[in-house]
Amino acid sequence: MRNRILFLLCFLCVGLQAFAQISISGKVVDAGGLELPGVNVMVKGTTIGTLTDGDGKFTIPDVPGGSNAVLVFSYVGFQTQEIKVGNAKNLTVKLQEDNMALDEVVVVGYGTSRKKDLAGSISSVKLDDSPLTQLANVNALVALSSKIPGFNYSPTTDAGGDNTASMTIRGMNSIITGPSEASLNKPLLVVDGSIFNGSINEIAMTDVESIDVLKDASSAAIYGSRSANGVIIITTKRGRSSKPTVNLDAYYGIQSWTRKPQMVTDQNEFLNRRREAMIAAGSIDPSVGLDAAQLLNAEELEVYNAGGWVDWIDEVSQNAQIQNYNLSISGNASDKVNYYLSAGYMKQDGLIVGDDYKKLTFMAKMDAKVTDWLTVGMRASYYNASNPGQIANIQSATWLSPYSHKYVRYDGYTDWYERYANGNVASPFWSSSETTSYLWTDRDKKYDNLNGTGFVQIDFPFVKGLSYKFTMNAVKNTSNIDMFVNPQYFLDTRKVEELADPYKYTAEANGKSEINQTYAWTMDNVFTYTKDFGKNHLDAMLGYTRDATHQNQLKTAYSGFKLPTVLGSYGQNLATTQQINKTLKEWQNVGYMARVNYNYANKYYLTANFRRDGFSGFAKGSKWANFPGVSAAWTLSQEDFMQNVIPGLSFLKLRGSYGLTGNQSIEAYATLATVASGYTWYDASSLYIYQNSLANEELTWATTKTGNFGLDFGFLDGRISGSIDVYKSKTNDMLLNRSLPYMTGFSEAKFNAGEVMNRGVELALNTININGDGKDNFRWESGLTFYRNKNKIVHLFGKDANGKEANDTGNATTNGYETARALVIGESINAAWDLKMLGIFQSQAEIDNYVDANGNKIQPDAVPGDIKFLDYNGDGKISTDDRHCIGDMDPLFTINLSNTLSWKNFSLYFNFRWDAGNSSHFIGSDPFGNYHNTATTSGAQLKVAPWSENNPTNDHPRLGYVNTYSYYFWSQRQYLKLKDLSLSYTFDQPWVKKANIQNLRLYLSGTDLFTITGWSGLDPETGGTIAAGPGSSRYGSKPAYRTITIGANITF
């Protein structure tokens, strides 16, 4: 009996020890041994848990279950790990990266989903701690084009440039008549769940956690009428650590042209080219040698004799610096209150003098779990930016003679810039236009944006899985634009008496001011329900959204002052002539939406969504439209019959989707007739009002139908992973301007018309080539994206009475491709409509042998050195009737190849981009980069040799060639570019921890470092062209930026 009692007591003691509450502490690190803050540590089967602090440490004082307890460690981007406590009191847990990241959460529009559960086409980029954040990109979207196939964002050519208006996803869905309408193809931007109304520059790069891009209609249809061009969802950071974490990121860099016009810099070469040009123009006899007195004008000769030479491109370029500072404080107090506060400052100099930008950004983000069922939160941001100055004239800088006077030569005025630098051409600093003078046009742009969001979320305790979220977003955006032309602009610096009286032309001073204000609010009401039953998973969403926008604009114009003024635009009330114009626009959108996701056994997935949208801008009967979408997926790798079928296969999923999305594409009052006012010609005081546009109450939504088929795959436990997508979309009923008969009294009116098709293929591939930890063992990761899109105009305005459908090419052939587009049925929106250049006639014999079927010369008036054109219509002569589609300006395909190498705290990231083209794809028009007949007789010369007997080129015509047919000179834009480069070192020495620094990283980065291309213009990626001749305002492309920076990231 006594032995039995002792045995029972021992059993009870062991049992009590097993179920006693104990205290467990430890540290969580990554594969390289670096501490991970913010890791979620939970006791399995309970609600007890904590987060690791800034040093990766944790403590759970009362762990129920004692030695039998199991701790669950989870962290975004890492594999979840379960560890049994056992007898340990202190644990060191090493988490492994989740290479496939299939459990990664992505934002899908009014909700989230695990990546492996997606049936639509969604691409995601995690920016937190990514090498992309070390690049000197002006905003967070710039780097996406290197990571997301199908996404295009052109490099900036302005300080603080915001190119979101021209960005596209999977090509252009809407017909545009010129670059000014590019925003018709702009994707919808969503930030932290709310539709974003503002500048992308408001969002600091270091504040972004992730970016999700919804590319197919099934994914984007939940946003209805504004999602035809895709949706970009930006999620900003939240707090992680239980104690406050302070992070500082700062960099400083220098910027330069990616490609500069290569000008002649040798004096003899310059004079020889001037001589050849003048001989070709017939202004000198061929017997004249390199005699500067006969080749230069009086002002040029004076500079020449004084040994002067001015490189005007260098003169207008400035030492462009960029500096950026971002400070954030974040935390997650007791897993109840999450907060993130940040402030940022950026200052960027443009590459051309007069282009400067600076901004201040602030963001505050907080949410609090008030009870187990109630969560409240807010997000507020403020953006203040200024872009003062007027850039120097790039046309004059390109073509003005280097034998020019930069400064006035009169004693007492030698610090004044010369207006007519070589006697008759305006200096790049003075300009030939009063509104674009670097010296005398005061121009300032200021932006002040305030954005606030608040939400309340209720997780109903009486219905498990049911929640309701109410979100309210409000925006106030203000822009102020001032322009003032100083009276000094009108001075003639060749006259000393005018220099002595700088305010002589006070009466000519003039200016304009503009104040734009936008007030907008968006309200979202969303119910969600999640239910698991057996192997079935169901989640549903039902919502209602409404938004309103109020825009007002105040414009003033003024001219003429009786007294000198130094107040600029602030003294416009003193002007003798003043004009005021004020406009107001208001519109609203309403949407009802629903989505259902179902999956069985994590193998079979089905998603259906529906949205019904209303827009106040459409007329009665056309205000509403429906936008459905459906997608399905099948995870084959989960099937028993697939096991061990494909060696190394770890994941394989097929998915398909189809949906309808919309594009409003019209202004608030586009369906109404509008009126304008004027004054009669016989009495300037007699005001009259007249109708200046026709009403069209039948205008309605442009709609895009998109089908997508995709394949997601993984091999070798995620060491090789990726996706392939094939898609096709059709857009109908775009808003187009159509010419009207003269008898109507109107030149054009807006109609729904046209059809555009896009089809293409995308590939994203990620590999871990060497699977080391990146610290003691070398690690090498690679990423590849491939994108090919084919764009085609299927219809324009329909068939005429003869059953034919006409192209619309006149605007492009008349005005050029810098401002217009040639719309050709069966071809791309970016089609090139022109004569086909076959080369350059090298001899009279070649001219004589270029004959038609009857043996007649096709170009009988040509001489060697002239362009040889294709007789496209076969009528035996060259005329404008031979214009046809010679290609398009779209890349044949785009490839990005990136690599990340890590070892011994060093990390190297680099990315190459190849935009491919040929003689008919990805071509660009650059007339003044190839045809410089006029400018060479009066100014500088590009370092491009025209045709001559000693230089029998097939690219550039002879000097003296007359461009009779207004050919636009096309050449390939294909290029290979080192797009991104970043080298960093992370310090983990003991002194770092002793200084209370959690993380310290120094980095050196560069963007657009070198380019290989045959393009004749500036940067081939932007299609930058060589500027037109002196005095012109055309083809003045600004340079793209090459940037090299050094920076530091410090976490306390």
Plain-language structure description:
This protein has 1052 residues and is mainly β. Among the domains are: 22-94, Sandwich (Immunoglobulin-like), CATH 2.60.40.1120; 833-1051, no CATH class. It is 8% helix and 44% strand. It contains 13 helices and 46 strands. Strand 18 (320-333) and strand 19 (337-349) form a beta hairpin.
Please describe the topology of this protein.
Layout: H1 2-19, E1 22-29, E2 40-43, E3 49-51, E4 57-63, E5 70-74, E6 81-84, E7 90-94, E8 105-107, E9 112-114, E10 122-126, E11 151-152, E12 168-169, E13 188-191, E14 194-195, E15 208-214, H2 217-220, E16 231-236, E17 245-257, H3 267-281, H4 292-295, H5 298-305, H6 312-316, E18 320-333, E19 337-349, E20 356-369, E21 374-386, H7 394-399, E22 441-459, E23 466-485, H8 496-499, E24 510-533, E25 536-559, E26 577-600, E27 604-615, E28 624-635, E29 649-663, E30 674-680, E31 683-693, E32 702-715, E33 720-739, E34 748-771, E35 779-795, H9 810-815, E36 831-834, E37 837-840, H10 844-849, E38 867-869, E39 884-888, E40 893-903, E41 906-916, E42 923-925, H11 927-930, H12 935-938, E43 970-972, E44 975-987, H13 990-994, E45 999-1013, E46 1041-1051
Parallel strand pairs: 1-7, 13-16
Antiparallel strand pairs: 1-4, 2-3, 2-5, 5-6, 8-9, 10-15, 11-12, 13-14, 15-16, 17-18, 17-46, 18-19, 19-20, 20-21, 21-22, 22-23, 23-24, 24-25, 25-26, 26-27, 27-28, 28-29, 29-32, 30-31, 32-33, 33-34, 34-35, 35-40, 36-39, 37-38, 40-41, 41-44, 42-43, 44-45, 45-46
